[in-house]
Amino acid sequence: MKVYLRLLSFVKPFKIFVFFSIISSVLYVLTNGLSLWIIGSLLSSVMSDSITNLQTINPNSFTDRINNFLFSYINTNNRMDLLKFLSYSLLLSFFFKNIFFYINNVSLSYAQNGIIASIRNKIFIKYQNLSLNFFKNKKTSDLTSILIHDVGIIKNTFNQTVQNLFNQPLNVLFFLITLILINLQLTLICFIVIPVSVFITVKLSASIRRKAMRSTKQTAKLMNVVIENISNVKIVKAFTSQLNQIKKFDKFNSNLFSKEFRLESLRFLNTPILDMMGALIGALLLLFGGKLVLVNQSLSPDGFIKFFTFLFAMFQPAKKIANVNAEINRGISSAERVFNILDTTEIEEFDDNSKIEIDKIDKIDFKDVTFSYDKKVNVLKNINVSIKKGDFIALVGESGSGKTTFSDLIMNFHHLENGNINIDDIDIRDINVNSLRQKIGLVSQDSILFNDTVSNNIKLGSPKSSDKDIYESVKKANAFEFIEKMSDKFDTNIGEKGIRISGGQKQRLAIARAIIKNPDILILDEATSALDSKSEKKIQEAIDSFSNEMTLIIIAHRLSTIKKADKILFFDNGEIIENGTHEELMKLNEKYKKLYDLQFGVKDE
To answer: What is residue 90's predicted lDDT score, i.e. its pLDDT?
Structure first.
């Protein structure tokens, strides 16, 4: 219940709507009770031989006191006058009842949807604030499932429960008080069966919660299969793996079907059990109530009819309240996954105003830096490097040797625990992350682009850039020529992940996106490794055109692209084992030279 109450804490911004909902709920309950009383009066007074007569009313009876209040100014001896009065009153009570019902639902619906929107916003904002380490250990499908599927279940839970938690308890309380006032003895008989109903409901709810959690996790697994398949559809087709993928999907889908069916089977069991309990109560009341009317004559037929009318009217809201528990337990399993995200402490404060904002980067110093992702295996070991403004730095080494981690630390993607990285003699941990990254441009190997126009992709890191800025950046990135050939030029949508353009064109757009920020440092992470010679040449020409304007840090597998570097850092198992220019490292005749000879087909003499 703590989890559900925490969900309800999101209601604060919508309290005015909740207030209107509560007021309209109270008025709805009163008008609903009035309509039921009128129906009972129709049954007992109009449709029977015993006409309600104020002269024969026992003023000590609750039923007769209410009748006296309602019918005191009506000639109850005239059946047609009474019938007209009851008919008009019934119509009027139903009119106001439904007006209040509508106001209640609309007000609560606005609050509910506002709460769900707030939760989604908080999750997405949290995703933006989480560190890269968090995402390394999570599946995209899980995170997507939490934002869409789990929040969707929470919305359904709100729709099914919040309304019932507001209206139905008021209904039950009103009906219960009315039943007690009509006849306490019969009301106490009802409570003989209620503890059994509560016990069954609690047991069912606990089982529903467990099964709901399993169903939610299975949904995330199925989503992962779908995302992987669609993202890698070209590879699937290339390796004729469609049937295997279909079988894999069918397996996960069947598991989800099984879990969902078990969950729904339990949920639907709640209603028939409660109905049977209601029937048992009804049978007991017929037996004992009939005795009070026919034998003891301590209860009037009118009172007995009204007791039954209000009792069975109470069953419906009571069943809804009982079902609320089952619905809440399904929603709680999703809410727990949501709150696990919101409570995650792997936070990256990207715009912390208490930290130092910088407007330039002239120098970077690594001092005794050792780094580990899991605090077990060191990815970088005792790194000591100084990078000055305008330097062309190349990072070389086998995959997994620490090159990308080195560049990630410059952008403060990971929290540094051992050693120091200073930006212009300021500890990187004391620098505002946004101000740091605004001075660094990144071109990754994958060239991640968005399903948007060419122009919007380029302006990603600099949304206020003018058309002139965009034009100059694409010129420098050697991208203007192919953009001009597109149907809508800069307004052309390039598709999801840039699927409508070639690999080389993606890279050139990624370079344009990086340099439009006018960064002090440009990091290129194997930006040409997957390209053909022609595309590589165009990108190399683009890099040469602005290499004198900023500090370049290039991670390269193709050594032909880094011959002009001022400093080449050769990484091996997390350590920098060679450091110098191309000529210096060739003379050293160690690993760099061996790698160079291997790439250019030079045989050992």
So the answer is: 75
What does the DSSP assignment read for 426-492?
Answer: EEGGGB-HHHHHTTEEEE-SS----SSBHHHHHTTT-TT--HHHHHHHHHHTT-HHHHHTSTTGGG-
Q: If one looks up domain 367-438+533-605 in CATH, what number appears?
A: 3.40.50.300
Token code pair at residue 187: 């009301």
Of 2.60.40.1930, 3.10.105.10, 3.40.50.20, 3.40.50.300, which CATH number belongs to 446-518?
3.40.50.300
pLDDT higher than threshold 70 for residue 599? yes
> Each residue of 178-236: pLDDT tens digit?
878 777 877 787 777 767 776 777 777 778 778 887 887 888 788 878 877 766 665 66
Tokens (6 digits) for 61: 């009876």
Per DSSP, the three-state class of 279 is helix
* pTM for the full predicted model: 0.68
452 phi and psi angles, rounded to 5 deg: -155, -175
Number of H helices, E strands in the chain: 21, 10
Chain centre distance of CA 259: 22
Question: ∠ CA(96), CA(166), CA(40), 5° rounding?
Answer: 45
What angle separates helix 301-342 from helix 79-129, to the nearest 10 degrees? 10
